[in-house]
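step=encode ok
step=design start
structure_in=
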């Protein structure tokens, strides 16, 4: 009986530690176009829905990147963020469509405030992200997920 209780308690702890579903909002009209078969694999691989968190020394924030269309030099993507984990960061959950520049396994764009956002495909199939703006640097490890 004691073993059973220990097992149940361990399951409850593990379930409580499971990665939560992203709380980053998305538009109702998400549409991912299949990339051209003629594109290199490291460009086609950028297409799709990617989920992770922006993480730095002060906060965590859910993040979703949906690459809706991609060609050899550019992409259209949805950039979405959720609420910060701390109460000091004044960022509201939001999304926006962006035009991005594409290179071999890379996607990058900037915002009007000067923030530079870069993503790079990794050998393990994840997407590494960096966000840099006026000394505020954060990183994300993104995982491809179904839409």
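sequence_out=
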């Amino acid at each position: 009986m004691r073993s059973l209780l220990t097992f149940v308690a361990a399951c409850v702890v593990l379930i409580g530690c499971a990665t939560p579903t992203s709380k980053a909002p998305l538009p109702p009209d998400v549409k991912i176009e299949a990339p051209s078969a003629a594109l290199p694999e490291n460009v086609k691989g950028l297409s799709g829905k990617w989920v992770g968190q922006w993480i730095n020394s002060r906060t965590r924030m859910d993040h979703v990147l949906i690459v809706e269309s991609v060609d050899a030099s550019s992409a259209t993507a949805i950039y979405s963020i959720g609420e910060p984990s701390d109460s000091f960061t004044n960022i509201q959950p939001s999304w926006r469509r962006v035009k991005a520049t594409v290179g071999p396994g890379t996607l990058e764009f900037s915002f009007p405030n000067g923030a530079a956002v870069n993503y790079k495909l990794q050998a393990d199939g994840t997407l590494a992200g960096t966000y840099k703006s006026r000394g505020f640097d954060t990183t994300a490890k993104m995982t491809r997920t179904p839409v």
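step=design ok
step=annotate ok -> Residues 83 and 131 are 16 Å apart (CA to CA).
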